[in-house]
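Entry for the shared binder. Reason: the reviewer on the internal report wants the predicted structure included alongside the sequence.
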Amino acid sequence: MTASVDTRSSLLDLARAAYRGISLYAPDRSPCAIDLSDNTNLFGVPPAALSLLRRAEAPTISRYPSLYAGALKVALAAYRDVDPSQVVTGCGSDDVLDSAIRAFGEPGDLMTHPEPSFAMIPLFARMNGLRAIGVPLMSKYDIDAEALLATGARIIYICSPNNPTGTCASDASIRRVLDEAPGVVILDEAYAEFSDRQFPAEGARRENLLVVRTLSKAFGLAGLRIGYATGPAALVSEVEKSRGPYKINALAESAAVAALTEDREWVARHVATAVRNREGFAIALRALGLYPIPSSANFLLVPIPDAQMIAAHMRRAGVAVRPMPGLPVVGDALRISIGPWPMMQKALVALQGALECE
């Protein structure tokens, strides 16, 4: 027994010190009849993308994909009204964020982010040898621009609409950060399509701004892992170096191009439905005596005591939601993705049953 423990200890010594103590990302993903836990598109797959995947030919699978997803860059550039040289892609927005942190931060540098926000950011910072400092959101969920700038961080991360609160940072706060930041500002807009408060498209003009988005949410392609960022060509080029070639598989690139060029109306229609259902679900929650945070994303964050216990009750009733215990500023909460209304009705029944069991 002692030898086994000693061997394990010796093997851990081979790993980077920054990785010790990091656990694998492991939310409860066991099968559930209705899964409202991951903020993906619950309305289906864009039809042109699905058709293309079904018609894929052997070379698309047997050969390497394009080096840097050139066709996808062109389609994304048209979607975001920028030049293809101002677009970088990756294996999901996580990959783009990780690559950007690695590109712009030296080991030992400081990175700052609001709290609560995307939980992977401090982990990406740590894995790349940076030190991460969280700055609590202000009372109305705006970012604290003054406190973020006061850290002197080389990289400032802002998520708007923010995960998990669903709230948007004010334009004034973002502009102040951009104007005074000593280094790069990463603006994560994964949920921008669901918001009517998008920050103006300044990524191509601001030399220190990288805007990161994804096709996992509104475009319904989470399983294909398509993320991207826009910004000045010089900034984008550094992320591309960090991220390396062949990061988008050929099938995913082709399907994403089809969705961007042929399925935009489908996406817009289902985004509108998600927003309408989000507002209807918020009204129903308030009728139960709950007060969800007003959201600009495709989910609602619902402050609630004993969030983990409530989520466990709901899962047993066939509805998965994400418990968020002990969030800074918020406290215990449930994050609930928005889907077709029949799913939301079943979520309400499961939630009401969980509350009655308390």
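Summary line for the report: The longest helix spans residues 264-287.
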